[in-house]
Amino acid sequence: MVDKRPTYSIVVEMENAQFIDWDEMGVGLTALAREIAVVSSTGFARPKVVISHAGQNADTSSLQSRIEAEAPQLTQLAEVTFAACPGGRYYDLKNNGISATDGKLVVFMDSDTVPEPGWLSTLLSPFQDPEIVCVNGYTYLLCDDFFSRTFALIWFFPVARGDQRFAEKRAINANNVAFRRDWIFSHPFPENNGFKVSCTLLLHQLRREGHELLSVNARVHHYCPRGWRFFYWRALVTGRDADRKFVALHAPNRSQRIAKSFSRWGTMSWRTMRRVIRHAPQTGMPLWQIPFSLAVGLAFYTLAFFGQFSLAAGLVRDEIEIVPDFVGHS
């Protein structure tokens, strides 16, 4: 018999308490509480929400007090627990939270994402099919000025509207995805020195076992990265991560990796031009800003090329990527 309303848990990734933007965090957790209330009204059991953070166990009491103040509805609608992973990176926090869950399904979201109405029910409903293992949501960048609109156009997320085809090509969104717990518990996000590589590697694990990624219109928005220092750092990391993915999935020699850095530079430059020209009006970008947005986008992927080429050619070492203190949103 198919369980139409399986139990579920939600893992919320959170940075160390000292780096949290509580204005943003409060909006996201309040939206999460609203979504839990909606699905609970249809018969789903009260879920467990696991706050997985990179601080110490001693931070738990202060985090709990602050979350209760920012989103008091959440603690009424769900069992909120805390899982410390001192110094943990992004995917470490995801994996750390899995072991604290107890539902048949595990939903992942981030502290800097905000669910839209209908998000949770849309993400959970496909699991009525017992063959479904993973359901991927639709994440886009919130944008309100030139810089954020440009990021929305060149980023690896689709734009908010009219970009469903690109969204369906996305790898797993670790900030907006649900798994059957037995599968993700036995297949945690793979370890990698990269910053955002594990989603791609996990997707390939999923497909190697004969499962498909089901993409649905379960929408969340992600706060946009800010600042030129972030732009510079993230572009270089994007390039280095591209080389890491190529190595992990294809095991090429160094000359192939170098050749790939050049071909990807061309591919991403062409994609950037197409996406900026095609989707700029949908972000609210004035026509006169489009040439400048193109220039910024091409600069980003030129920096990414240098990041990828330098790692492929052995000019830099493959070291663990850690977010610098100056970066801000990641």
Please tag this protein with its features.
330 residues; alpha/beta; Spore Coat Polysaccharide Biosynthesis Protein SpsA, Chain A; 2 domains; eight-stranded mixed β-sheet; 12 helices; 15% strand
Description:
With 330 residues, this protein is of the alpha/beta class. It has two domains: 8-222, Spore Coat Polysaccharide Biosynthesis Protein SpsA, Chain A (Alpha-Beta Complex), CATH 3.90.550.10; 228-312, no CATH class. It contains twelve helices and eight strands. It has helices spanning 22-40, 60-70, 72-77, 90-98, 119-124, 146-154, 164-168, 181-186, 198-208, 228-250, 254-279, 290-312, and strands at residues 8-14, 48-53, 79-84, 105-110, 113-115, 134-141, 176-180, 213-222. It has an eight-stranded mixed beta sheet. Strand 1 (8-14), helix 1 and strand 2 (48-53) form a beta-alpha-beta unit. The termini are far apart. The model has no long low-confidence stretch (mean pLDDT 93).
